[in-house]
Structure to design on (185 residues):
């Protein structure tokens, strides 16, 4: 199913085991309490000359696919988010379409059910871990002003994706929880 740059092929049977192992490793490696762990905030966008992507990004990647916006804002602004190996696309005629190449920044995994700029952080401790990436649109922000799109995907068996968008100054533009993966991604 996905390859998080470890060269491991994961299917529906091994994914839960890897999620548990990842949570245990993260817990054991933490040098301080998960409750006090700060998450990286958005920073102003620095344009890269190339559209760098991690090794293996274009195959077996948990972020690639088509994602349906389900919240009111998600339906109105994103509609369907398509993350392809070389392009990202979302939007509609009413609110603007963004179709762009991108570079990838992998953020530390979101532990304790948290990730940067989460709309509603968990109120109770959680074992849920998120894989988090930020895609910097290349060669420039979209006409809508979005320069970076953050994707956070829980490492469980759900088919959900959390999306946060930022402008070129690193200011949050939108927060879209609970996108669901469309069949045939």
């Amino acid at each position: 199913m996905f390859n998080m740059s470890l060269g491991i092929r994961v299917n529906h049977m091994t994914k839960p085991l890897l999620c548990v192992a990842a949570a245990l490793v993260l817990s054991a490696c933490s040098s301080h309490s998960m409750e006090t762990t700060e998450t990286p905030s958005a920073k102003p966008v620095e344009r890269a000359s190339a559209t760098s992507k991690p090794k293996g990004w274009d195959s077996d990647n948990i972020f690639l696919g088509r994602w349906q916006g389900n919240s009111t804002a998600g339906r109105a602004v994103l509609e369907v988010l398509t993350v392809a190996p070389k392009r990202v696309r979302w939007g509609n005629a009413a609110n603007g379409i963004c179709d762009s190449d991108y570079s990838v920044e992998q953020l530390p995994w979101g532990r304790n059910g948290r990730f940067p700029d989460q709309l509603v952080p968990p109120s109770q401790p959680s074992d849920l871990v998120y894989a988090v990436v930020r895609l910097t649109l290349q060669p420039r922000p979209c006409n809508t002003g979005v320069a970076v799109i953050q994707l956070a995907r829980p490492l469980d068996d759900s088919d959900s994706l959390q999306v946060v968008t930022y402008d070129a100054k690193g200011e949050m533009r939108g927060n879209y929880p609970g996108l669901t993966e469309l069949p045939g991604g």
Summary: The radius of gyration is 16 Å. Residues 112 and 125 are 6 Å apart (CA to CA).
